[in-house]
Design a protein that fits this description.
The structure holds two protein chains of two kinds. Chain A is of the alpha/beta class. Chain A is 38% helix and 24% strand. Chain A contains nine helices and nine strands. In chain A, the strands form two sheets. Chain A has a six-stranded mixed sheet with strand order 5-6-7-3-8-9, with helices on both faces. In chain A, strands 2-1-4 form a three-stranded antiparallel sheet, covered by helices on one side. Chain A starts with a strand and ends with a helix. By secondary structure, chain B is an alpha/beta fold. Chain B has two domains: 297 residues, no CATH class; 199 residues, Neutral Protease, domain 2 (Orthogonal Bundle). Helix content of chain B is 57%, strand content 6%. Chain B has a five-stranded mixed sheet. In chain B, strands 1-2 form a two-stranded antiparallel ribbon. In chain B, β8 and β9 form a beta hairpin. In chain B, α9 packs antiparallel against α11. The chains are: A alpha/beta, B alpha/beta. At the A-B interface, α2 and α3 of A face α1, α5 and α10 of B.
Amino acid sequence: MNVNLTEIHRSFGKNKAVDGVSLELGTGVFGLLGPNGAGKTSLLRILATVLPPSSGEMALLGRDPRASAARREIRRRLGYLPQNLGYYPSFTVVEFIEYFALLKEMPVPAVPRAVAAAVERVDLGPKAKAKLRTLSGGMLRRVGIAQAIVNNPDLLLLDEPTAGLDPEQRVQFRSLLRGLGESSTVLVSTHLVEDVGAACSEVALMSAGKIVFRGTPDELTVRGEGHSVGDAPLERGYSAVLAEARS
Amino acid sequence: MTTVSLPLAGPARALRLELKRSAVPFLLPLLAAVFYYNTVRTADGFPAVWTLRASVIGDHMLFEFSAFAGGLGAWAGSREGRRKTADLVTTTARAAWARLSIALAGTLAWLLLAFGSGVAVLYVKTALQATWGGPPVWPVLVGAAGVTVVTVIGFTCGVLFPGRFTAPLVAVVTLFLYQVGFHAVLGIDPVPGIHGLGSGTYGLLSPAGPPPNPDAGVYYRIAPDLSVVRVMFLAGIAVALFGMLGLAPGVRRLASPRSRGSVRAFLAHGGSWPLRGAALVLIAGGLAAAVTAFSLAGTARLDPVGGWEIPALHAAASDRPLPVAEDCTSVATLRVCVDQAFSDDLSDVADALKPVAGEIAGLPGAPAKAAEVASMDGGQQVMSGTAGNPPVFEFTAEHVGPIFGDFNAPADDPAQWRAPFQTGLLDAFVAGLAPGSGQHAGPAVPPAGLAAQQAVVNALLTAAGTAPSEIGGNELLPGQPSAATWAAIGAATRRFLALPASARRAWLATHLTALRAGTITLAQVP
């Protein structure tokens, strides 16, 4: 198991952002659904070792991230795309991705090839030497994805990765996700249930800091049968589970 | 295939990116313009004496460089906060300290390169003009330490308080502190000669200060004591702050509103324990160096040649006078000599002395030589005067106005310094003033005698083409003379001036001894 969480809690003052989440994830693409404020981003930040949990046990890639040496090793094999991607406008696409490859302590001789491969995988080859300040929001999102995958991570955490992508890019991205999921653990937090249906082998649904559903997209679809809210079967399942959790 | 890389290859490559995308080069043209306007023009106004020209590094160059270094350091340090990449970079394996160090190095390297280029401009210009000596190293080291510490201060401020206004705020505060705060806070105006105005000599830690004596470093070595203490102080602060950057992620977390007071948050974000240990060692070592330097600065005292010495660091070798090499020329019967450092000014000095030398040439007691000497002796400012047999008129660079020392006088008005300089020679000749103290060599002269001396000096000065009114014409008299005395002096001056030159010379040849002794009154002046 690349991710092993047991009773993870995280509070900000009186607000329980993550409330007793237990999760085990192996290789594959996992979708993390939930309404705004459900705790998805907090959970991803905990998994990305940005945020320490208030309590609970956690192992990532077989290591305890509380130990600094283990945390460093985890981070070498981690890819993370935050919800709000910050970037350095004066850097070019290649420079930005190279910078993060170096921060991830990739072997220097391997960096140029890895950067070029990441750029190609997100289809930014023609813009490789463009300054980031000149790129559109969708292109910047792809730059963010490229920096996340440049080190071929064993654990890839993506927070709203398809926000700002056009339909064609989203289709390409789902294909990319499926490929990455064959050898890595990919956790995708999203509002877009169609992304989950198309790319994820498994899905978890969060509400009020808790995981209220875990199963395949088909199982989520089944939960929505007979429920009237939602245009697509998966959306009806999503709404049904949330309504049940809130009641 | 396994790829192998050198341990520092990654940071070096990241540094290359930081250098390439640094904000510093965008502001270099503006910095260069300010540097030219403030520093280069000031240096050009100084004579081409190495010590003098190098003094602008601490007093002017650091002023503009500090503002830029502080602001640009803060801009680089606040980048992760401003650009909201903190989460992204936190998830990378490289330690936050290493990452911040690389960003700091990228900014600092540009600033030091700019500083070095500025020094090169100053020194090359000086080398093309100077007639003696070589480039001093200590002002450059102090300046480099100053640029470094301000950059690190700005960077640390940027890391701990990231925001778009951090950089301009740091730049403005740096300017303010550099200009007034340092001396005000430490309580001294470290001007040589008025020691004791403040509560201590701690303000000497600031590289800024007034220009040294015009002949500093010409007759005596500049003791490096103060420079050593300044470098120790500035480098100590820089090292301590650099160590603090090692704890910055934890400190920043501790200071965040969400985790205020949370030691757990600090421990979770402070990096590995070996790194934290190294950071603490640097902080302790840097603070120890800075505190030691601060204490040493408090023991500074004026040395006999106008500089500062710190007893714990002072080497006796610094007190040995430098060998004097003169450049000389002759006017009338007077041989005029200046130190080689001022060779370019020899003809101006000779031209200034020529008219008055002609008036007294051949008279008994008239100086055969006018020679420049050190401006400080035994901790006292040296006054011009005559000494020796045959008599030598000794003057210092301080007395040659805008050519050597009087930086406030308009350089394009020779009368501003020629008249006092000529008067100095006549005063020394007529009144027998000894060099050094500027006092009469013999017994005290009564006021009536002083008035007669003044009338003769004024007459000779007027005969040489300089109106006494340009300089006041009463420098030999104590205090301001009364109107009646002034009128009597004027009448005697006019009588003596009305005599043919040969008659004046004949009277002086006969009566100079009595005139110097003060036994001749105004009424006895023909």
